[in-house]
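Suppose you are handed a protein chain with no further information: no name, no annotation, nothing but its sequence. What can you learn? This example shows the usual starting point.
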Amino acid sequence: MTLQLLSPDPATWRITAVAPVGERLVVQGKPVRAAVACPVCGTRSWRVQSRSRRQPWDLSWGRWPVQLLVQARRFFCDAPTCRRRSFVEPCPRLLARYDRQTERRR
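A reasonable first move is to predict its three-dimensional structure. Written in C-alpha cells, the prediction is:
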C-alpha cells in the first residue's frame, strides 16, 4: 500500500510520512498544487508569500490518536482590482478555517 492511498484528496495533498511519535501517530502531508485560486476574485496565484504548519487531530487509528502535520501556504493575489492581497491555501475535505481537528473527527 502506498502512502498516497491515505490522502483525503490525492489531487491536493501528498502524504510524505507516517510515524509513531510518543503515544500518537503522526501523518505528514504537503500540498501538490502549484497554483491556487484566490477565494475572492478567482485569479490563480503561483507566488507563495509564506508557509506554516497546521497540526490538527484526526480520527484515531486503533488505539493510536492521529495527528496531522500539514503544510499550509499563503499566496499573494496579484489581481489589481482584488481587495485581498494574500490568502491561505484552503484544505478541502480536510480542514475548515481555524479548525484544530479534521471535519470527519468533528
